[in-house]
Design brief:
Blueprint: H1 2-50, H2 58-65, H3 74-85, H4 97-102, E1 114-122, E2 128-131, E3 144-146, H5 148-154, E4 161-166, E5 176-184, H6 189-192, E6 203-204, H7 219-227, E7 235-240, H8 246-260, E8 265-273, H9 275-284, E9 288-293, H10 298-317, E10 321-327, H11 329-339, H12 357-364, E11 367-369, E12 374-382, H13 388-397, E13 403-406, H14 409-413, E14 426-427, H15 430-433, H16 436-450, H17 454-467
Parallel strand pairs: 3-5, 7-12, 7-13, 8-9, 8-10, 10-12
Antiparallel strand pairs: 1-2, 1-4, 2-3, 4-5, 6-11, 11-12, 13-14
Helix pairs in contact: 10-11, 11-13
Length: about 475
């Protein structure tokens, strides 16, 4: 009984198992295999389809509704920049104007060669920079780099005015480099290479007079034209006390030279001057105004003065006529004195014995060159300022000029301008500059004025000058 039942019992589940196994199991596996990719693709499709659609959560939807577009991720930003570079502005950005401008890179095209001009300043290592007059020839971001080989090739010196082609700086370069020299001091570079150095040129007395009584003349310039004429290559000094109108006189002289002698290159150098007077000069004088105001340090005054002098020398070497109007040589000497290292020998007033050598070299550079150009320097010197140092400086320069114009405080206190002390103002060898007839009449005039005091003499001359239109009539 048991035996017959057992096989049946064991067989029945076995049969069931064999029946179910091949049918059920593969079905599950198939379903597994079949459904997996199907679900994935559905998800991907859903992702792609639903990306722009808002999320189903109502709260979040409301939150995001009023917010501006989210900030782009770094990768997205990079792609956007690429697109904008290539001109494809709307790529991946629904034409949103704000973001288009925000991530836009500036469009600069440096294909063309730029021409630029500057005054050469050579460093100790042999290379140099072209300094800009906009920054008073001090170092600035606009400087142009000049290589050592170019300086050697063209025989360039400090103060040369170089015009040339410039290219934009490459990666790692700080300044625009000079790639081609077009002109040096307004001349062909090949001609300039063989020039004679300024120190070896022959100085002469001034031969040709500046006409200060022609166009744009004032009573000041007409009086100067007769009593203390200025020639090309003159080394003149205007000696004055404070508040006697020396700056106005310089301005009149500058405008008269610019109007009657356009061929002359004129520089007005203001050292230790008031800023408002610098602006006034720049606006009312035709000429290059280089200034170092009193709030700058002494070494800046000295540097500007040196580069202006070097520039003038280089122009004279190339045959140009140059005029420097310096206000004032006393303050320049003070700046040199404070920069000069102590030598141990000190003159009265606290002036170092060696400090006055350089301002003397500046003033002494004025000369008329034989068969060449000329350098004229008209400088103002301060006296009776109450400073012992100013007196010492003035005494040192007293005999070095070949033209002297004295201004008197007593005359200016009477509000008579120009406040010129006529009897003590004169030019050395003025017989070369004036014709014989004028000189004869001037001697008679001086004899007559010598008996009067300076105030009376100036009043007398002023009245006579106002009645006449020009010096010939006078």
């Amino acid at each position: 009984m048991y035996k017959s039942q057992l096989p049946n019992a064991t067989n029945a589940p076995a049969e069931q198992a064999t029946e179910t196994k091949p049918v059920a199991e593969p079905k599950q596996e198939e379903a597994k295999v079949e459904n997996k990719p199907a679900q994935q693709t559905e998800k991907v499709e859903a992702k792609v389809e639903n990306k722009p659609k808002p999320r189903p959560r109502p709260q979040k939807e409301r939150k995001n509704d009023n917010q501006p577009n989210p900030r782009p991720k770094p990768q997205q930003k990079r792609d956007q920049n690429k697109n904008q570079k290539n001109g494809n502005v709307h790529a991946g950005n629904n034409g949103n104007k704000d973001s288009r401008n925000r991530y836009r890179e500036p469009d600069f095209e440096f294909d063309a060669i730029i021409e630029s001009e500057g005054v050469l300043d050579i460093m100790q290592d042999g290379y140099g920079f072209l300094r800009s007059s906009d920054y008073n020839y001090l170092s600035s971001p606009d400087d142009i780099y000049v290589s050592q080989s170019q300086i050697r090739l063209f025989g360039l010196k400090v103060g040369d005015t170089v015009l040339g082609q410039v290219r934009p700086p490459k990666e790692g370069e700080k300044y625009f480099p000079l790639i081609k020299v077009s002109k040096i001091n307004g001349q062909n570079p090949n001609v300039v290479r063989d020039r004679v150095a300024f120190e070896h040129l022959t100085p002469l007395f001034p031969q040709e007079k500046f006409n200060l009584a022609g166009r744009q003349s004032t009573i000041s310039t007409r009086i100067m034209d007769l009593f203390a004429p200025i020639g090309k290559g003159q080394r003149g000094m205007i000696v004055s006390q404070p508040k006697t109108g020396k700056t106005m006189l310089l301005k009149d002289v500058a405008n008269a030279i610019a109007a009657n002698h356009p061929e002359v290159y004129q520089m007005i150098l203001l050292i230790d001057e008031r800023p408002e007077e610098v602006t006034d000069m720049q606006r009312n004088v035709r000429g290059e105004v280089i200034a170092s105001t009193f709030d700058k340090e002494a070494h800046e005054h000295v540097k500007i003065a040196n580069i202006v002098l070097e520039k003038a020398k280089r122009l004279v070497e190339c045959g140009h006529d140059v005029v420097i109007l310096l206000d004032s040589i006393t303050r320049l000497a003070r700046a040199y004195n404070s920069v000069q290292p102590a030598s141990g020998k000190i003159l009265s007033g606290g002036v170092d014995a060696n400090a006055l050598h350089k301002p003397k070299r500046f003033f002494g550079a004025a000369r008329n060159i034989e068969n060449g150009g000329s350098l004229t320097i008209i400088a103002t010197a301060l006296t009776e300022t109450g400073s012992k140092m100013d007196e010492v400086i003035f005494e040192e320069f007293k005999g070095t000029g070949n033209m002297e114009l004295q201004l008197d405080r007593k005359i200016s206190n009477r509000r008579i301008f120009p406040a010129i002390d006529l009897t003590s103002s004169s030019t050395r060898r003025d017989d070369i500059l004036l014709d014989a007839n004028t000189i004869q009449r001037m001697w008679v005039m001086r004899k007559y004025l010598a008996d009067m005091n300076p105030v009376e003499a100036m009043e007398f001359i002023n009245e006579r000058f106002k009645q006449t239109r020009n010096n010939e009539e006078f």
